[in-house]
Amino acid sequence: MPNRQPFKGGPRDERAHPLIENYLDIHGINSGVYAPLAMPGAKDRQRGVYDNPVAAINDRRSMYRGAKHFRLSAHVIVGDGPDEGTGILTFALFDKDVGRRHVFQQSGGDPARLAYNPYSKGNLRRRS
Q1: Engineered SS bond to 31: which of 27, 76, 98, 126, CB 3.0-4.6 Å?
Q2: What is the pLDDT of residues 66-121, one digit of tens each?
Q3: Domain residue ranges in the chain
Q4: How far is CA 10 from CA 4, 5, 70, in A?
């Protein structure tokens, strides 16, 4: 079946659900507080330090999928870790309306100022 989605028939990724529920219990929604992404792939789960880039990418994607299941928007920041070859992942959760409002304020309502302009599909725009 050449046109099938690769993850369509697979099990739902719920690895980030406990972390999301814990974050919402402690900080609530739209708090803007960034917490470490303490998934099982992390080297140091207290601080969200990763030394394996594949594990970091998979855990970041799992956070995005989990937030989507809760109808939230996740913002994950990748930063430099304390040691060479490590990185720190932190995240915050926002309501979808807050994210849309933020994008609207950044662009001033002009779709041409967006990083991706859905109205000019096929036309490449270079960032200045």
Answers
A1: 27
A2: 999 999 989 898 888 888 888 899 999 999 888 888 888 888 888 888 877 777 76
A3: 17-114
A4: 12, 10, 19
Tell me the HSE value of 40 on the side-chain side, using a 13 A CA sphere.
Answer: 6
Give the tokens for residue 93.
């959760």
pLDDT tens-digit readout, 23-53: 999 999 888 899 998 888 888 888 889 998 8
The pTM for the full model equals: 0.75
First-to-last C-alpha distance (Å) of the chain: 42
Q: How far is CA 7 from CA 65, 67, 70, 91, in A?
A: 12, 17, 19, 24
